[in-house]
Design brief:
Structural class: alpha+beta
Shape: globular
Largest sheet: 9 strands, antiparallel
Number of strands: 20
Number of helices: 16
């Protein structure tokens, strides 16, 4: 099977590449090949012709030049978390940035310098050592690059915005092998496109992020109720989102209480509804601001308590560990009628396994950035909704993917234009146009023609030149 998908490369060309490349090169016959080709989503099983692990920007330049000379498709891997598997390929080259990790904090300027292969945990840990944080995602072993270049949702987004809203600059290697810098003041058009469609334009080797005082202790947790109370809880969620301060990030979820051992007997194995919340302000303010959702009861579970920011950021790591099979679809909503939770409850009740819906509060700091200020689209929404499925048995692929598609299709009448690019698993010109809208799509096409006219970087939600 390896030989079918990973053709033998010209050994003379590989030898020349090795001489110009300081990092590690892994070929299909090498002992570490199978480990090198594995990515986070267990559904993805591909066989690249070569895996190159650069140690610096000149190595990345060498890898891109080799790929172009050998006419290899290029996959770029930071954390390997791409849901559709864009961070690997069959028969091409994987430029694996895992040897380019490391985050340096400038506490005086409140700036983080992160190398292109860094993980969220490195940024969180480094910044928290100085009482600072950058708004990033909710699974600490995610790569900074993929998360950021698509937008960057997380627990601090209503207070501090998306990850891209805190991005000061990037350094990237372009398709023609140049190392360039992009910021609001330098290559500003490219910087606009990188914030929301960034995988299309190059390999980012370094990021600069703005940091903010957060923690070290925040208040976080959830209140969980039987599904029979879902409508009442949704009404509370709507009111709470509208009235709570920016320091409060809140989500609503409908799911199955699995594994049963993690839940009280009266709810184990049954559908539930919950409100999860993160308050990044002082504990006294959190006690006051979260009182309304804790008073709605009695809940089957209440886990809201002061916790370290770092503990919260690592809380999902085990549940979302490498090797699970995962599928999701999502959309934005302008409102949240009761019928939405009715449909969520219906689909969860008929789910083939660990399937759920999440609804995240949007707005506040996200909406304060003009919609045309970045390539990212969706700032005017009030909510983001996703249907997610997690499983391990390959024989259950069809059932879980089918559930995800049908579940999100049932919510489509309530959604508005745009999609969060990091969630989109299907591909195609129409799909990509639907992510950004016509005006932004045309601007991105022009940028693609300027920076990657040969579409070297096409393993992504691709904007074709």
């Amino acid at each position: 099977m390896v030989r079918e998908f990973a053709p033998t490369l010209d050994q003379s060309a590989v030898g020349s590449f090795r001489q110009a490349f300081a990092g590690e090169i892994v070929l299909p016959d090498d002992p570490g090949y199978d480990a090198a080709r594995v990515v986070w989503n267990g559904m993805i099983d591909r066989f690249p012709a070569i895996v190159a692990r650069p140690t610096n920007a000149p190595d990345v330049i060498s890898a891109i030049r080799f790929a172009r000379e050998q006419q290899l498709i290029v996959a770029v891997r930071s954390g390997g978390h791409s849901i559709p598997g864009f961070s690997t390929c069959d028969g091409g080259i994987v430029i694996d940035l895992s040897a380019m990790r490391g985050v340096r904090i400038d506490p005086e300027r409140r700036i983080a310098h992160a190398n292109g292969g860094s993980l969220l945990a490195e940024l969180d840990d480094g910044a928290q050592a100085h009482g600072l944080a950058c708004p990033v995602g909710v699974v600490a072993h995610t790569g900074i690059a993929g998360l950021t270049l698509g937008g960057g949702m997380g627990r601090l987004q209503r207070k501090l915005g998306l990850t891209i809203d805190n991005l000061a600059s990037v350094e990237l290697v372009t398709a023609d092998g140049r190392l360039v810098r992009a910021s609001e003041d330098e290559n500003a058009d490219l910087f606009w496109g990188l914030r929301g469609a960034g995988a299309n334009f190059g390999v980012v080797t370094a990021f600069e992020f703005r940091l903010h005082p957060i923690g070290p202790t925040i208040t976080q947790g959830f209140v969980l109720h039987p599904i029979e109370r879902a409508r009442e809880l949704l009404a509370l969620f709507r009111e709470f989102v509208a009235s709570s301060p920016d320091e409060v990030m809140t989500t609503f979820a409908v799911g199955l209480a699995l594994p049963e051992s993690d839940f009280p007997a009266e709810i184990a194995g049954r559908p539930f509804a919950l409100i999860s919340t993160t308050h990044c302000g002082p504990a006294q303010a959190a006690e006051r601001d979260l009182a309304a959702i804790r008073a709605f009861g009695p809940p089957a579970m209440d886990t809201i308590a002061p916790k370290s920011y770092l503990a919260v950021q690592h809380a999902n790591d085990e549940g979302m560990r490498w090797g699970h099979r995962f599928y999701m679809k999502s959309g934005y909503m302008a409102s949240l009628p009761d019928e939405v939770v009715d449909r969520c409850a219906e689909h969860v009740s008929n789910a083939p396994g660990d399937c759920s819906f999440s609804i995240w509060a949007w707005g506040r700091a996200i909406a304060r950035v003009p919609d045309d200020g970045t390539a990212y689209t969706g700032r005017d929404a009030r909510f983001w909704v996703a249907a997610e499925a997690l499983w391990d048995d390959p024989n259950q692929d069809e059932a879980h993917i089918g559930w995800g598609r049908a579940a999100m299709a049932s919510l489509m009448p309530f959604t508005v234009a745009g999609h969060y690019v990091n969630d989109v698993v299907e591909s195609g010109d129409d799909v990509v146009r639907s992510i950004y809208g016509d005006a932004k799509y045309q601007r991105l096409v022009a940028l693609k023609r300027a920076w990657d006219p040969d579409n070297v970087f096409r393993l992504n939600q691709n904007v074709r030149p």
